[in-house]
Task: structure prediction
Amino acid sequence: MKYVVVIGDGMADYPLEELNGKTPLQTAHIPNMDSIAANGVNGLLKTIPDGMEPGSDVANLSIMGYNPRKYYTGRGPLEAASIGAELEDDDIAFRCNFIFKDKGLLADFNADHISTVEASELIEALNQAFYKYGKFYLGTSYRNLFVCKNKEMASLESTPPHDVVGEPIKNHLIKPEEDTKSLLINRIMDESQDILKDHPINLKRVQEGKKPANMIWLWGQGPKPNMKPFKSEYGIKGATITGVDLIKGLGVYLGLTNIHVPGATGYYDTDYCGKAKYALKSLEDNDLVFIHVEAPDEAAHAGDLDEKIKAIERIDKRILEKLLDNLPNYDDYSISILPDHPTPITIKTHALDPVPYAMCSTKGSGDDVNLYDEESAKSGSQGLLDGHKFIKNLLDYSG
Ligand SMILES: [Zn+2]
Result:
């Protein structure tokens, strides 16, 4: 049996007035998703446990079959894995953003999408200045990493910078502020300004009319998660295909093979056909492949309804159609479609609602649902399932 799980990031949505009360999934032309729903079973998946934030990392960890409540330790350690920074047992990894501070406000959480080449020089300067406290690692663009030794820092309260754009920096420093560990991290953030403000990279950026990366922002910290590899947990060998570091990081900790697809960008322009092609090839050596597509989420964050519908239709046409045409080369196969969480256009951010899922298999039965969308899935035979039970459900159903 070969298994393919296609995850359209943020595909689920709410009914929209401009779509006459329908959701983007109900509006898009998605014959292949509908055929999976019609030939297989359907249900709702609660990918975000109560009390947790609806992040893609938490949601995808659920889908991969692990309870985030038990295994999620933060965004930093996942990104560390994806850039190849190995964490020791007493390490704490912080996500390190380059930000633009203006008049005391957090004016831009990504310093105008500073390039990775520019970031690498700034990272070097930070390492020279702060080597006593830990090590900075280059990631991609404004998304970098800081690793230090103090496991107790896991409990500090840090703030995602994209949540507080335009707000005073002093209101969102690491808390509790009087804690010595907070004092240290807040001091590093504060002193980073002295290192960065007159750095030649920033002087040049200002000259070119771009925002300087004049401060770092440390957040999302945590230790290395301790998860049993996917193979020993579920008895099958898995792979991931994604353009997103967080998801790659999950794959690293779970012992999944990250398949590199040359045109996978994590954006609208990702190579959908390439993802399908590489997924089919990966099944020669693997039992299961997760294909993650970020584009619908990006479109929803931008509030771009047309682009969101386009992204959903591209997943259907360019990925699912190719998969459904070629999977019969394997005698027995199963294919599933689901989002990780909703990213409703109206709120432009992730929501907590359970997501619709559909799965069909050459060995499985069907239910009465014929369409794939948020509403139809409610009458599916699988009911409402906790996210981390998805893989077990898939294996039980597919045989
Ligand atoms: Zn997501």
User: Anything to note?
Assistant: The mean pLDDT is 95. The longest helix spans residues 305-326. The first strand starts at residue 2 and ends at 8.
